[in-house]
Amino acid sequence: MASPSVLRFEHVTVAFDDVPALVDLSFEAFEGESRVIMGAAGSGKTVLLKTALGLVKPTSGKIYAFDQDLTAMPERALFDIRSKIGMLFQESALFDSLTIEENVAYPLLNQRSIHCPPDQVRPRVEEALEFVELGGTLEKFPSELSGGMRRRAAIARAVVTGPPLVLYDSPTAGLDPITAHTIISLVVKERDVSRVTSLMVTNRYQDGNLLANFRYNPERKSIQPAHNGTRADLRTVFMVLHEGRLVFEGNQDRLEAETDPYIVKFVKRRE
Amino acid sequence: MLDLLKGPVLVVQEFFLLAGRAVRNVFRSPHYQTDIVLQMDDIGVGSLPLVAMIGFFSGAVMAIQMSRALRQYGQIGRTGMVVAITLVRELGPDLTALMVAGRNSSGMASELGSMKVTEQIDAMRALGTDPIQKLVTPRLIATCAMLPALTVIADFVGIFAGWVVSYTLLGIPSRQYWNSAWRALAWNDVAQGLIKPFVFAFVISLVGCFYGLRTTGGTQGVGRATTQAMVAASVLIFILTYFIAQVFVFQGSS
Question: If you compute the radius of gyration of chain A from its CA atoms, what whole number of angstroms results?
Fold first, then answer.
């Protein structure tokens, strides 16, 4: 049975001052799917996520999120679509003049289509911060937290409204391996607990590997290798971008069987 | 040649688009009252000591310099008039605007620029807020409300400083000074003195926000945006001063 389409790119080209960032990109992400997007620096990974959110307008092509055409919408109409999409920005992008509590509460209070009763804001913020294991940091400012903690707070802010689609822009960039593992565990946890569709940009093959082969175990409260056959409804698709073009799209087995030197570079980095 | 012109024309177009959207948002909800009040405090209360000091010394200097010229014609009693007219028509609005441009245009550019390079502006859009509504419009409203008030204060402090110099150094009787200062001012002067800060408020807030929002290239870019905002705002203030003066002088003479 085919899952409903969550995000669809149709021949999308994005150019900044005539320099192309994405070239004729087409793909479709279905409900419950995880997509791992890899590519060299400047290959258009971040632009892809920002285009999916309507933050960047494509030069040509169409983008459909939840079957609505983003390219035809004015900025104000995009806010309703964006309330269904969580985004973790590369450098967390927490508002540094606000506390962690205010940061996480921000989408609850500002997204017009999210009608959160005022007395529910604090419990939901606490719940989201508990989810990323950052309980006791409500009153702190982003500058008082470490890089990994900021990333976790930003994940809490991205998922506090319970969006069905979450975009992660290099969630592990600049973090040590242990913290990076914690962050990916949270991505897996969010996917498996809330059954969200995830798009994750990363340069680390092991991040994609974790996402494809590990599942969250609610009893042990940690991630563990998935046994074949369990949660077969979840599938992970790998995408590789090169200078704005999609040069590979397929599952992990096909990716590992690739012989193209550019694609192999990302696969061979396995630790 | 055409390509050379394309860049600046595009910048001007972007600036007017931003200005249009910022002004349109004044009449659209949501309104961020807290942000407006915070900005008023920063721009108004924060600039007050600086503006008062600049007003005081410019008034004092005008009194000293003008008294020398006026003495040659035996008109030293008219010092109050000269101080009042120059301050209310030109120095008060211009110097206040320049000070606020230096302090707040650059401040806005660096604050919004830092937010831009750390993707906070994108995050704001992703989380359901229009950055122009949340960041630019409150700064525009706050500057429009505060700059005329600061100008009036600078004018008054300047005329007061003129009196201090006239009374203590030049020996002009208080009554004569205040009388000549008061009688010198016509509606035309006051109107010009109050319209100018209102126009400058648009320049200061929108130029600061414009350069902040188009920042690219990390911390270096923030520094560049800050400098550009301050320079552009100051130059525009001088250019607009000339045109406003021309309009009022023609109107006054007709």
Answer: 18
Reply yes or no on whether the pLDDT at B236 is more than 70: yes
Confidence (pLDDT) at A270: 46
* Torsional sign, CA A187, A190, A193, A199: negative
Contact B126 A85 (CB under 8 A): yes
Instruction: Using the Cα atoms of residue B123, residue B124, residue B127 and residue B128 in order, give the sign of their dihedral.
Output: negative
Q: Establish if A76 touches chain B: CB-CB under 8 angstroms.
A: yes
A–B: how many Cβ contacts below 8 A? Answer: 50
pLDDT of residue A228 exceeding 70:
no
Q: How far apart are CA B206 and CA B204, in angstroms?
A: 6
C-alpha span between B11 and A261 (Å, rounded): 42
Angle between helix B79-86 and helix B46-72 axes, rounded to 10 deg: 140
Give the separation between CA A94 and CA B118, rounded to whole angstroms. 9
Identity (one letter) of the amino acid at A70?
L
Give the pLDDT score at A233: 52
Instruction: For an interface test with B, give the residue of A55, A78, A103 to mutate (most B CBs within 10 A).
Output: A55
Cβ distance B120 to A93 less than 8 Å, yes or no, reads yes
Q: What share of chain A is helix, strand, coil (3-state, %, to 5)?
A: 35, 30, 35
List the single residue in B115, B125, B127 with the smallest CB-CB distance to A106.
B127
Q: How confident is the model at residue A234 (pLDDT cuts 50, 70, 90)?
A: low
Is the four-CA dihedral A67, A72, A77, A81 of positive or negative sign?
positive
Structure tokens at A141: 């400012």
- Judged by CB atoms closer than 8 Å, whether chains meet at A90 and B127 is answered as no
Q: For residue B31, what are the β-bridge partners?
A: none
Q: What is the tens place of the pLDDT at every residue in A172-212?
A: 888 888 888 888 988 888 888 888 999 999 988 888 888 88
pLDDT for position B248 = 81
CA B247 to chain centre: 19
Q: Contact A91/B129, CB-based, under 8 Å? A: no
Decide if A50 touches B, using CB distance below 8 A: yes
- B30 upstream amide cis, omega within 30 of 0: yes
Closest chain A C-alpha to B106 CA, distance in angstroms? 18
pLDDT band of residue A111 (cuts 50, 70, 90) is: confident
- Kindly provide the ipTM of the predicted complex, given to two decimals: 0.88
Least confident of A11-20, A50-59, A260-269: A260-269
pLDDT > 90 fraction of chain B, expressed in percent and rounded:
73
Residue type, A1: M
**pTM to 2 decimals?**
0.88
